[in-house]
Amino acid sequence: MSAILGLDDVSYAYRGSRPGQHAVRGVSFSIESGQNTGLVGESGSGKSTLLKVLLGLARPTSGEVLFDGAPLDLGDRLQVRSFRRSVQTVFQDPYSSLDPRQRVGRIVGEPVRSLKMARGRAADALVAEALESVGLPADAASHYPHEFSGGQRQRIAIARAIVSRPRVLLADEPVSALDVITRNQVIDLLAELGPSRDLTVLMVSHDLGVVAALCQRTIVLQGGQVVEQGTTSAVLGAPREAYTRRLLAAIPRLPQI
Amino acid sequence: MSLLEVSSLRVVSSDGVSRVRDVSFTVAPGERLGLIGESGSGKSLTAFAVIGLLPAGLKATGSVVLDGTQVVGAPEKSLVPIRGRICSFIFQEPLTALDPLMRLGRQLAEPIARHQGLRGSDLKRAVLDALDEVHLPEPERIANSRSWEISGGQRQRVAIAMALACRPRLLIADEPTTALDVTVQAEVLALLDHLVADREMAMIFVSHDLAVVSRMTDHALVMRSGEAVEKGSIADLLASPRHPYTAEFAAGARKAEAALAAALMQGPAE
């Protein structure tokens, strides 16, 4: 087991914020290979900021992003190329994250082109393989996003994210826009991709039910700081912090019958 | 007698597509009913049709009798006395229900002034009381704020205060906590539950989330693709569904909760 991606004492303050006012402060954790990790918190907890930092879209105000144990240097082209190939993302809203004017094949093939992985037939084969592994028919490539349902669109987004054979998938609330039946199917898909493609998921979510279903580890955030982290069974089964307990108690549950 | 009687309700869009088909149900005074379904099931359109608030381009046929008044086909003018007084509505996103330019106290004062005929300092006191009733801290500050200056949970509390200002007999809540954080959701549901019980109001609670609905009502109508699939007690919908779709929906909700339930039970030992 080794850490693929991690944060070491990361703080981030948005430009123009008051001195000392950080969106996240002193956050450290690591994503180990094969250990799907849930990043849980409510609005304002710093989830989205951390995601930007983990994607290399925002530079921490202090602290380091660690990629394969080495500090991520956004000026180092070689390292960034390898980082982009290894760390991919899926967003919350499958309606706004897919370009409506591009065919699915072109959308899914984008990382193949921008990372210069393959061209022509070889690139098409990678796209077809990615579509197949998310359970979409091969002819999906020639259709447009509007021809698909919300759940299918999220599968397209996942196909785009896994086409470069990344080792980490950063998923930002990937199922919160989906209905419950579709939601279960997409979670099952994400769970299957792990072992079959050697892929580890970091999922940002406000939904502890989804985290419990997919993640071996859970990190609880509140007000930009890590409140509690550990195995999901420890954090949910025997929470040490009052905030975690409050979060768990607030989840609406089905009646016991 | 029923407070609300919906029979053979149909909602048709301008291109002739039926978005709601042949939906019938009743709500007695003080009764609570959940409307459950996935997106596109027609549950929100059904709720909008009850109070004659369908979006432009949609037309209702059939019958909706609300406290003795036929809503379907009624001129807008005849619906005004019903809205707020007989039936009021809470929306999913309180920002859409509140005017961003007007101070919240003034917005809340409008229905209170209309309903109770209050003015001046009496009206001001009634507004602060109404904010206090929905457990908002510092009612004075909230009354002087605009909708975008307070949090989402506080906004939904203000929207609830507005919906209740004219003491309606039926409250329709359309996914009122879907946009809120889970801890805030729990607080708002508890507040709604308590206010509705206290005032012996009837309630239609619209949601895609079976667990949330079960927190608020004992009975629900399951909708799918514009049709009412099954109505019954939530316990029956979960334990002995009659329709295959209800079974699929209930199984989905149960599966979504299974991992969480297991983790909560399991404790730290692995």
Fold and architecture overview:
The complex is a heterodimer of chains A (257) and B (270). In chain A, helix 3 (104-114) crosses helix 4 (120-133), helix 4 packs across helix 5 (150-162) and helix 5 runs parallel beside helix 6. Helices cover 37% and strands 23% of the residues of chain A. Chain A is an alpha/beta fold. Chain A has a domain at 3-94 and 170-250: Rossmann fold. Chain A has a six-stranded mixed beta sheet, sandwiched between helices. Chain A has a four-stranded antiparallel beta sheet with strand order 2-1-4-5, with helices on one face. Chain A has helices at residues 47-54, 77-86, 104-114, 120-133, 150-162, 180-197, 208-214, 232-237, 242-250, and strands at 3-12, 24-32, 37-40, 62-67, 70-71, 87-90, 168-172, 200-205, 217-222, 225-231. Chain A is built from nine helices and ten strands. In chain A, strand 7, helix 6 (180-197) and strand 8 form a beta-alpha-beta unit. The radius of gyration of chain A is 18 Å and the shape is globular. By secondary structure, chain B is an alpha/beta fold. Chain B has a domain at 4-93 and 169-265: 3-Layer(aba) Sandwich (Rossmann fold), CATH 3.40.50.300. Chain B is 42% helix and 24% strand. Chain B is built from eleven helices and ten strands. Chain B has helices at residues 43-50, 76-79, 94-97, 104-116, 120-133, 139-143, 152-164, 182-198, 210-216, 234-239, 244-266; strands at 4-13, 18-27, 32-36, 58-66, 69-70, 87-90, 170-174, 202-207, 219-224, 227-233. Classes of the chains: A alpha/beta (257), B alpha/beta (270). Chains A and B meet through helix 6, helix 7, helix 8 and helix 9 of A and helix 8, helix 9, helix 10 and helix 11 of B.
